[in-house]
Design brief:
alpha+beta, about 150 residues, homodimer, DNA-binding, 5 strands, Alpha-Beta Plaits, Lrp/AsnC family transcriptional regulator (chains A, B), WH-like_DNA-bd_sf (chains A, B), Arc Repressor Mutant, subunit A, WH_DNA-bd_sf (chains A, B)
DNA sequence: AACTAAAACTGAAAATTTTTCCTTTATGAC
DNA sequence: GTCATAAAGGAAAAATTTTCAGTTTTAGTT
């Protein structure tokens, strides 16, 4: 699909606050409520808007510790790759897993309570997955920026 | 604040789909609509729920290229740190910036159109920021898992 | 320039949801 | 048992979403 300037603005607004009413959006965009409604539905139907979610502040739910883990597989057999990706996806502590270029195969973003919980996660969950060759972890000292808003 | 099992379930539900009506949530939780409403308001007021956002599929807005950039500052003077963090925060292509332990000072998640756009981003924006010592980029080959839902 | 079809817009009405208000229930302290 | 507090439920009110019918705009064709 194709976006005009209004769609772009609308996506920006919704990426920052999806609880705005169509009336508020219609004011911001100088459109009628119905026009806003229809544009949003179109963006949803075309899969541009994927889902709507509540973002939880991790400190408030006692998950303040964030780490990035690099992982290398022992061998790059397809079977191993598929199994690793499946198992890592099932770990709720792993918010993100990306297959990347470079020295390591994957980078994971892991969220847990504290360093001790991270140790447990590594020992009991992550390294229990088969075919992991080596890992290298980096700990987040402070979160400088974190947004879900894709530039549009 | 303190969470009971219902709050936890509620947060899980809202982290996965914030567009569910209170009636749907009340069914899932075996509660009245009002009770759900009040629990949500409490979670919002206590800052547990930070915001509600629309998640956009990056492929649909022509931002399919994701890279992680490691950055080392030339010197760790506070002034340099503050300035770097401020400037990097203003770059819309940078969705995340974390100050981390390890060989590098920061890790960034960058979203752009393609490799060519990434090159431009590096040359014209990122390395224009003062006090950057060195960088090292890793490109995402495939996104194995990506969620905003913190385990609760 | 006039015509047509499609897309986008508008305002009003209908349907649904959110929010308020008041009553009831459960829990723990005295 | 009584009181105080917190959580829950139901019903009504307020607000929002969604539908609908009709109009305007746009783009392409003749």
């Amino acid at each position: 699909m194709t976006f005009d300037a209004i769609d772009q603005k609308l996506l920006q607004l919704l990426q920052n606050d999806s609880k705005q009413t169509n009336k508020e959006l219609s004011n911001a965009l100088n459109l009628s409520v119905t026009a806003v409604f229809e544009r949003i539905k179109k963006l949803e139907n075309n899969g541009v808007i994927n889902k709507y979610v509540a973002l939880v502040k991790k400190e408030k739910v006692d998950k303040s510790f964030v780490a990035f883990c690099h992982i290398k597989l022992s061998q790059h057999i397809q079977e191993y790759v598929v199994q690793f990706e499946k198992e890592v996806t099932n770990l709720t502590e792993v918010l993100e897993c990306h297959h990347i270029s470079g020295d390591y195969d994957y980078i994971l973003k892991v969220v847990v309570k504290d360093m001790e919980a991270f140790r447990e996660f590594m020992v009991e969950k992550l390294t229990n997955i088969n075919h992991i060759g080596s890992t290298h972890s980096m700990f987040v000292i402070s979160e400088v920026k974190s947004t879900t808003a894709i530039p549009i």
